[in-house]
Design brief:
Elements: E1 19-25, E2 31-37, E3 44-48, E4 51-52, H1 62-70, H2 77-80, H3 84-93, H4 97-100, E5 104-108, H5 114-121, E6 125-130, H6 135-142, E7 148-152, E8 165-170, H7 180-186, E9 191-201, H8 212-220, H9 225-246, H10 253-256, H11 273-288, H12 298-307, E10 310-318, E11 320-327
Parallel strand pairs: 5-6, 5-8, 6-7, 8-9
Antiparallel strand pairs: 1-2, 2-3, 3-4, 9-11, 10-11
Length: 328
């Protein structure tokens, strides 16, 4: 942990600032391990493997910890050789590299760091947070970036000083939390007045009700994660073959393939066959394994932004259902 992070941290329970005790520093002066303690010493949190931990190591997001440590480099642009994450980031946020440069940015649900890498490449100072131990994969992937800070914490109890961040984003995350509206509202206190927020969601519509994953999830989410993943390793390749074959049907193919319960990125992303199989396995696991999957409607998201007093609000379809705005 870089010592500069102490300036923006606070105890999520008492609101007190922390003092650092029992610290072990590396040759760069960064905290490898130690304890963040309040002034009275009655509340403390460990720093483990360079990362402050404000939650139990095991929680409802365990599947994401497993997922992003196993597929730690799959969707990282600098490793995959394609700019899929960069395109999605800027399409969703509509922010520019120049406006992010030098600004404090919070990545909620960083996973292995696919979007944190993009923000860091703009010159932003990025605090990447996740509830799961995927923060360890993010640390390994993005270690070279001097402006990266990592935290393992709960979205409902963020350990940051009020109005710390110029920009906050959460892409592909909030629908996987127990209370999506509360998750959205939890982001507001740490965003500066005049700061910008971008979040996205799976879209709730009449069509989404017929997606095969929602018919299978009532069973699949209860299957032990390793068992589920091992099973998907067997069934994803033949399901992909069926999906790709169905997709060849004129006019109807692109619609019918959605009935096949597998994520099919062939002909969508310029990757090698091996990479495409890996992406399919990753995304199919991401469909079936989370404890929560709560799509949202455009009207609901718009109401949240309006109710929170944002301006320049936009709710649109940009891959996912995106909401963005500026805090008044």
């Amino acid at each position: 942990m870089k010592l500069e992070l102490l300036k923006v941290l606070k105890d999520p329970v008492s609101g007190e600032k922390f003092r650092l005790v029992e610290e072990i520093l590396d040759e760069k002066g960064q905290v490898v391990s130690g304890v963040l303690s309040t002034s009275k010493g009655d509340i403390s949190y460990p720093i483990i493997n360079n990362i402050p931990r404000f939650v139990n190591m095991s929680n409802y997001a365990d599947n994401f910890g497993m997922q992003w440590n196993l597929f730690s480099k799959t969707q990282i642009d600098s490793f995959s050789g394609v700019n899929v994450s960069e395109k999605r980031f800027y399409s969703a946020t509509n922010w520019s590299k120049s406006e992010l440069s030098g600004k404090w940015v919070l990545d909620i649900g960083c996973g292995a760091g696919r979007f944190a890498e993009i923000a860091l490449n703009s010159g932003a100072i990025v605090v990447a947070l996740d509830y799961s131990n995927s923060v360890d994969a993010c640390y390994t992937n993005l270690l070279k970036h001097e402006n990266l800070y990592l935290v393992q914490a709960d979205i409902y109890s963020l350990p940051f000083q009020p109005e710390t961040f110029d920009y906050v984003y959460s892409l592909g995350v909030l629908q996987h939390t127990p209370d999506v509206k509360l998750s959205f509202l939890s982001l507001l206190p740490v965003l500066k007045t005049g700061g910008k927020l971008c979040v996205d969601f799976y879209e709730k519509s009449w069509k989404s009700k017929f997606l095969p994953k929602y018919m299978i999830r009532p069973i699949s989410k209860h299957i032990p994660k390793k068992v589920l993943l091992d099973g998907l390793k067997i069934v994803v390749p033949p399901l992909l073959l069926i999906s790709r074959t169905v997709n060849l049907i004129p006019f109807l193919g692109k619609y019918l393939k959605r009935l096949i319960p597998v994520a099919n990125h062939f002909d969508e992303v310029p990757l090698t066959r091996k990479q495409l199989l890996e992406w399919s396995l990753l995304d199919t696991f991401d469909w079936f394994s989370p404890a929560y999957d709560n799509p949202q409607s455009a009207d609901t998201v718009l109401n949240w932004f309006n109710g929170a007093g944002f301006e320049n609000i936009e709710v649109l379809r940009a891959g996912h259902l995106v909401g963005r705005g500026k805090k008044l």
